[in-house]
Amino acid sequence: MSQSSTPPPVPPAEQSGNPYAQGAGPQDTPPAPGFPQQQGGPAFPMAPVAPTGPVFTNLGLGLAAAVGAALVGAVVYGVVIGLTKHQIGWAAVGVGFLIGLAAGRVGGRNPVLPVVSVVLAAGSVYLGQLVGEAMIGAKEIGVGFNELFFDDLDLVQEAWKADADPLTFVFFAIAAYVAFSSARKAGH
Q1: Among 162, 85, 157, 91, which Cα is nearest to 124's?
Q2: Distance CA 87, CA 98 (A)
Q3: Judging by beta carbons within 10 Å of its beta carbon (0-12, 13-18, 19+), is residue 12 exposed, middle or buried?
Q4: Is the pLDDT of residue 183 over 80?
Q5: Which pLDDT value is given to residue 14?
Q6: pLDDT of amino acid 170
Q7: How many other CB atoms sit within 10 Å of the CB of residue 165?
Q8: Residue range 116-129: average pLDDT?
Q9: Taking burial as the number of CB atoms within 10 A of a residue's CB, which of 46, 93, 131, 141 is the most buried?
């Protein structure tokens, strides 16, 4: 027998999409939908999965982490202001990011945490500005920071009011926005 002979052509009605299974016939029917165990019976659709709700289990830890981050952020922000005698926008961004990240990572997806992060960020920036004013004032009048900040806080607040300008309140808004968005993103 010679190798030059070609196989007989397959009629077009018997051709399938697989060229290697020419003429295989009725076994080429696609399997019925469903599980392989249900080949003979009707296919049943899968039940929809209910979405999970927000996780509220870490609310206390998230709040505690956010308060701790707010205190650390206020001290660092105040030291930056006291050393440079200027408010720096990136420092306000850092304070908001630190608070939002701590709240979101520790507290999870709780919807309360971004809102609390906004309030804590604004308070942290305010406290940092007071610490900065106290550092600057203590250097100028020659007293210790602790004496001025803890004994004469009313003088520090009066100096803050005198130095406050519209840009001061922009820093509040920057820190609040960054805290809200980073708490939401870190929680998901």
Answers
A1: 91
A2: 18
A3: exposed
A4: yes
A5: 52
A6: 93
A7: 8
A8: 96
A9: 131
CA distance 65 to 179: 13
Query: Residue 184: what pLDDT?
Result: 92
| Contact call for residues 74 and 127 (beta carbons, < 8 A) | yes
113 vs 54: CA distance, rounded Å: 12
**Least confident among 42-51, 93-102, 119-128:** 42-51
Average pLDDT score, the chain? 83
Question: Please, what is the Cα angle at 95 between 174 and 77, to 5 degrees?
Answer: 105
Residue 30: its pLDDT value, please? 60
Site of tokens 């607040």: 157
Query: Which residues, 6 or more positions from 66, have their beta carbon under 8 angstroms from its beta carbon?
Result: 99, 102, 103, 106, 107, 113, 116, 117, 120, 183
One-letter amino acid identity for 69?
A
Burial letters 95-112, b for 16+ CB under 10 A, else e? bbbbbbbbbbbbbbbbee
pLDDT in tens, 63-84: 999 999 999 999 999 999 999 9
Nearest Cα residue to 56 out of 98, 113, 94: 113
Q: What is the DSSP letter of 118?
A: H
Rounded CA-CA distance 96/94 in Å is 5
